[in-house]
Amino acid sequence: MKLYLSILLTCLSIFANAQKKISGKITNNSNEVLLGVEVYIEELQKGTSTNENGYYELTNLPNNTIKITAAYIGYHTETKIITFKNKETEVNFILEEAVFKMDEVIVSTAFNKLQSQNVMKVEHENIKTLQRKGSSTLIEGLTTIPGVSQISTGTSIGKPVIRGLSGNRVLVYSQGVRLENQQFGDEHGLGLNDSGIESVEVIKGPASLLYGSDALGGVLYFNPEKFAEANTFKTNFSQKIFSNTVGSNSSLGLKTSTDNWKFLTRGSFSAHSDYKIPNGDRITNTRYNETDFKTGIGYSNSKISNIFRYNFNKLDIGIPEEGMVEQTQSKKTTYPKQAVSNHLLSLNSIFFFNDSKLATDFSYISNDRSEFEDSSIAVLHMKLNTVNYDAKYYIPKTGKLETILGIQGMHQNNKNYGEEYLIPNATTNDIGVFGTSNFEWKSNILQAGLRFDNRTLSTKEHGNTGEEGYFKAIDKSYNSFNASLGYKTNLNDNLITRLNLASGFRAPNLAELTSNGVHEGTNRYEIGNSNLKTEQNIQTDLNLEFNTLHFEFFVNGFYNHIKNYIYTSPTGEIRENNNIYNYIQNNAKLYGGEIGVHFHPHPMDWLHIESSFETVTGKKQQGNYLPLIPANNWNNTVRTEFDINNWLMDGFISLNISNTFNQNNTSEFETGSKGYSLVNLGLGGTLKIGKTYYDINLNGTNLLNEKYIAHLSKLKADNIPNIGRNIILGISFNI
What we know:
Elements lengths: L1 H14 L4 E9 L9 E4 L4 E4 L5 E7 L3 E7 L6 E6 L4 E3 L2 E3 L26 E5 H6 L5 H5 L5 E6 L3 E6 L2 E2 L3 E5 L2 E2 L18 E8 L3 H4 L6 E7 L7 E11 L4 E11 L3 E12 L15 E13 L3 E15 L18 E16 L4 E16 L7 E19 L2 E16 L9 E16 L2 E16 L15 E16 L4 E12 L3 H5 L1 E4 L4 E4 L7 E13 L3 E25 L2 E22 L7 E14 L12 E12 L3 E13 L15 E14 L2 E10 L24 E9 L1
Parallel strand pairs: 1-7, 1-8, 13-16, 31-34
Antiparallel strand pairs: 1-4, 2-3, 2-5, 5-6, 9-15, 10-11, 11-12, 13-14, 15-16, 17-18, 17-40, 18-19, 19-20, 20-21, 21-22, 22-23, 23-24, 24-25, 25-26, 26-27, 27-28, 28-29, 29-32, 30-31, 32-33, 33-34, 34-35, 35-36, 36-37, 37-38, 38-39, 39-40
């Protein structure tokens, strides 16, 4: 860390000279000025907003080609690429009205295009939008995105599922860096809190070209909270209460910026008791507590941009094992339970040259996980320390051709300190190199890339041969070449089509290679296989989008073939009263997609009607179904939007009916699941009282108190229903 700070200070002293400035005026098609338009430069994480005269100004900018974006609710987002010829440059925008959501800049892909310009279809959602849908946790909110589900253990633990793939097959990014926190376990959550997160981007499909191993099924890319506008100071407080879990979530943040420097910090605390099912009983020890702290400091000038961020997350999670024994509203966890703490430090830098740039990311992640059975002495205690680095060089643009060359790497160390071992002490090293290019002509975009990766993994011997908990030493190396090819074209002014072909890979994880003992989460004795090969997949995606002023339609289809898919299979033997399962491999395939419509009838401009359907089927080569495949879902929403004079703005009322179908396409080790329908209601808006604006949301989820068991619930084996009716009240305001 001292080395990073020394480099940072040196760069600041060298490059704090030249200054460039952009200013301009933003109007609509009627030449009316627009107040409060967000003007932002994503790569600098620097922005401002227009004043009452429609003017904006950004200073201390690099002498380089930059991308500036103007975004305003109810209008199409506009992006302009600016190459400085003078010290001061005037850039004006004329925004066109739009009915549907704003076109967002996609950060998770290589070239950071607007969604409408991106070769790959990427789902982008603001966390505020997900919260308006009544989600209690970050992962629960993600399940409202078509193609995304969750494997849940009560209300506290959720693991994302993208088109039927989960665990180490889905990569998570936060603060611009890869998040590593023992994802091999079904009951190991992400360790992320939605407080201090601006938005999420979901890549559905292999993304190994940019992200390496474990991006086989897709990527969740969480964008952190933006810094304050230049020369401003803001303090924000938010509070949410939950009726079902008698829970609360409090968050306090502040941020300030000058022309060059920026700073923010935010702390939050959540506490929930056992959740209540429709018959009124509470599921014992599903309670949990979470503490989260985020801070960041940034500096930018004409030659360099640096952002340093830190996130601390602490979880105290009860593990339900006794069903509905204790009926209490206590928030103090009992045994068995988990105690998890995560430290994430990241340094994101961009160095600007005349007509090119270099982007670097460094991170250190410390994951400390303890599991307690019946006392304060941890039975399992694992520490995972990870160092990540990433460098991308943007070659000077040649006509319509853009090219990026990159290198990525990871050094990871896992150590055990408890009485029992689930996985052995191990060291993992990754190195990957890649190149990708983007070529545009007329209304067409072609994007292609190549990548090579190497992963080495070594473990230490532990225990006694032939006994539970024995791990032999292994020393493995895995290589993989991957490629991607994508094409986007506008068939006409309203119709966009995208076709993508990409490969991905995943090296076997430690649990798959070395397991030797009872896995309490699955109630079986698992035996690893050190001879497992790398999973390799090829996925084809086809996306069609049709948009008019009052009608939006999309359809996504995919076919995913996975070679050497890793799964567990029973041997027919029993050890220590548990069935023995071996890790084996077979080819597999997944296929399906999502379809949706959004209707905004004229002249009823206040009305929005939305409907989407998602489906996925997963099969092994011999025809048997894969486990943990989400059921088909049909989601329908009627939403109104309105303003009332000058005291209620951005008001909304939404009625949602989510229909989940029977899931009978199960593996030989699963039971089927019955379908169910959930009714959800939400209302809220921005209320002006005096000079203060209050964002208020009132949501009711599962309003009819439907008794149901989700197919991907880990409590399904014990016939424990999911959460019943839940009323959520949230308020947020600037102090």
